[in-house]
Structure formats: structure tokens, C-alpha cells
Backbone:
């Protein structure tokens, strides 16, 4: 692990020097997130949540390579993306490698300067298992005439059962089944697609789908996998100093009764959730010439990882959650933000869930 970290550090030092000599071929970037999370009547957690280095290389007019290497919580190293682009035409590109699944607002665009809260929306963690990346191949492109962007991929899929060990559960759905390209395996191919419409000024609407079965190392054990059908709808509207966003995602899972009976787990047969949020840049009210931004935001989020359950599974009301968050984002520069917020948390159990005061720093370049 230390050798890997040293190698990465040397790369970070070397890349800017090399990039100056190859301005048109090599590109670098990255982002970082530091969190201060303080639940009521509890100790605060302070964390360098993630630091990410992006490196891209343009081989020629048609072929390029992109990758992201991420440190989480200082000591965890992960490759988040690593794929080759092959341009088939002016508006069509083939991709192959470790690719982010096109689902929702956050999974493909998740730098801390792109979302208002200190941490990513909880729904994107437990309904969409962000950051969700899989090995696959597919196409992406756009049509300016129709004002649409489209993506379609074949992926290896979420794992549910490996060498007798189950990975799915009721509390966080599919999250523990992410393979992230690390010694991944595939028993059945999955299909993923998304289309975005941008034909109305300031508005972008996305519709995504993900379909297939989870992955198992025991092909003869039908109870070891579940069928997955995920549909996501999202929208962003920006005008003047306003930003409005919304997202709805529903997962329908089949064969969960057999899976839960086999593994003793409590996976829901349906998971669903949504959030609505708004932000307004209040700084022009005090200084019309200000280059910075001060966003006043609020978000209401509700999701349930056991919206429906199979016959022999008992619902857990702790998994039916709501979050109301309000706070400020101060963009001292386009790629640097300071965040402060208060989050009201609740679920359907009679016991209270601790609210939280949070602060954070995010950068992206």
C-alpha cells in the first residue's frame, strides 16, 4: 500500500511537468472533500473524505484514455474510472473499461462543487449505490438537432453471492455488491442506458434505466441472485440566480424471497426514493459586481430501501428515511466552496434520529 501511495505521489509531481511539454495530449485534474459532521449530543467526525486525481491522454484525434484514482479517508485507494474512448463520428463515441453507470444526477458528476450538501445525497448512496462504476463497453453521443444526449452500455453487474458469501441487505440495498473492477466476475451481462433532453433553455431532463441480474459464482444456485430493474428520472433548471433540482429512482427486485431464505438477509423487493432541492445566489443582493457566489439552499429527501418486501421478510421502519437539509455554499472561486448546513433526520420508528450540524470544504479543478 505504501509503495502504491509513493508511486501515485511521484506521478502527481511528474504529470504537471510533463503536461507543460505536451499541452495538447495530456490533461490533469482532480477534486477533494473535507467533512466536519456533528450529530446532536455526539462527538464530531472530521474526515478527509476523498482526494481524487484525474489523468487523461489524447493519443490522436479519435482515441483517448481517461482515469481517476481516489484516496478515501486518507488510507483507502481505489480506481474510480479507467476507460478508452474511440470516436466513431463527430457526435458518437465508443467506450470500454471501468465506466461510471449513467444513473441520477450525482453518479457521473460527483465533484463536491456540484452538490450543495456537505456529503452526497443519502438516496444516491443507498438507492443508487454511488459511486457506482462497472467494467463494460458501450456508446455515448448527442444530437444537437434533437437536443438530446444518449448513453448505452453492457456491464458486468452488481454481485450478490460469491463463494457462499451474500452481499445484498435491507439497510443499504445494492451498495455492498459494487465490484468496482477489483477482481470482478460476471455471471450475466446487464444493460444500462440514459437519455438527456436539453432543448429548453436552462432545463436538462434525464431518464435512465438499468436492467439485468446480480452476479453469482454459483450458477446452479438460482436463489443466489436477484433480478434488478432500476428506473431514474432527474431534472435540473437554472435561471438567473436560481438552481432547482429533482430526482426520483425506483428499484424493482425479483427473486428476493428465495435470496433472503438462502442467505438470512432482508433485501427489499422494491426500493424507492426522491429528493427536491433549490438554491439561490443571494450575494448579488448585496454586491452586484461580486465574482463569488453565496448560495442559500434547501433539500427535502425521502427514500425507503424496503418500500416493498417479499412474503417472509419483515419490514424495518428504520429503512424508511427522510432528511431535510438547509444551509449555505460560499464559492470563493469557481472550483472552491465552503459549506455549512443543518440536517433534520427522521425515520418511521418512534425513537428519535439525531439531527446533525455539518461543515465542509470542496475543491475541483
Residues:
Amino acid at each position: 500500500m505504501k509503495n502504491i501511495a509513493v508511486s501515485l505521489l511521484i506521478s502527481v509531481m511528474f504529470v504537471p511537468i510533463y503536461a507543460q511539454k505536451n499541452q495538447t495530449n495530456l490533461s490533469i485534474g482532480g477534486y477533494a472533500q473535507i467533512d466536519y459532521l456533528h450529530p446532536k449530543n455526539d462527538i464530531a467526525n472530521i474526515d478527509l473524505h476523498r482526494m481524487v486525481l484525474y489523468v487523461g491522454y489524447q493519443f490522436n484525434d479519435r482515441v483517448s484514455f481517461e482515469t481517476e484514482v481516489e484516496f478515501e479517508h486518507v488510507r483507502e485507494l481505489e480506481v474510480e474510472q479507467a476507460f478508452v474512448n474511440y470516436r466513431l463520428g463527430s457526435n458518437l463515441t465508443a467506450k470500454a473499461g471501468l465506466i461510471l453507470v449513467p444513473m441520477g444526477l450525482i453518479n457521473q458528476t460527483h465533484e463536491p462543487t456540484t452538490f450543495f450538501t456537505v456529503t452526497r445525497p443519502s438516496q444516491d448512496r443507498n438507492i443508487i449505490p454511488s459511486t457506482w462504476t462497472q467494467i463494460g463497453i458501450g456508446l455515448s453521443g448527442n444530437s444537437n438537432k434533437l437536443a438530446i444526449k444518449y448513453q448505452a452500455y453492457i456491464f458486468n453487474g452488481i454481485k450478490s453471492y460469491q463463494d457462499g458469501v451474500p452481499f445484498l441487505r435491507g439497510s443499504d440495498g445494492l451498495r455492498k455488491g459494487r465490484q468496482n473492477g477489483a477482481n470482478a466476475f460476471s455471471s450475466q451481462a446487464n444493460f444500462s442506458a440514459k437519455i438527456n433532453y436539453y432543448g429548453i433553455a436552462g432545463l436538462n431532463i434525464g431518464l435512465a434505466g438499468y436492467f439485468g441480474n446480480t452476479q453469482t459464482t454459483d450458477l446452479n444456485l438460482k436463489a443466489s441472485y436477484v433480478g434488478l430493474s432500476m428506473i431514474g428520472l432527474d431534472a435540473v433548471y437554472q435561471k438567473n440566480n436560481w438552481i432547482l433540482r429533482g430526482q426520483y429512482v425506483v428499484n424493482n427486485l425479483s427473486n428476493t424471497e428465495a435470496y433472503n431464505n438462502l442467505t438470512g438477509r432482508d433485501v427489499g423487493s422494491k426500493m424507492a426514493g426522491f429528493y427536491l432541492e433549490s438554491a439561490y445566489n443571494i450575494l448579488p443582493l448585496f454586491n452586484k459586481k461580486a465574482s463569488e457566489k453565496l448560495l442559500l439552499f434547501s433539500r427535502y429527501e425521502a427514500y425507503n430501501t424496503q418500500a416493498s418486501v417479499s412474503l417472509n421478510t419483515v419490514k424495518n421502519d428504520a429503512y424508511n428515511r427522510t432528511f431535510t437539509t438547509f444551509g449555505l455554499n460560499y464559492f470563493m472561486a469557481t472550483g472552491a466552496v465552503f459549506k455549512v448546513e443543518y440536517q433534520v433526520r427522521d425515520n418511521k420508528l418512534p425513537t428519535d434520529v439525531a439531527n446533525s450540524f455539518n461543515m465542509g470544504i470542496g475543491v475541483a479543478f
Summary: The chain has a mean pLDDT of 93. The radius of gyration is 21 Å. The CA atoms of residues 63 and 86 lie 5 Å apart. The helical segments are 2-21, 122-126, 256-263.
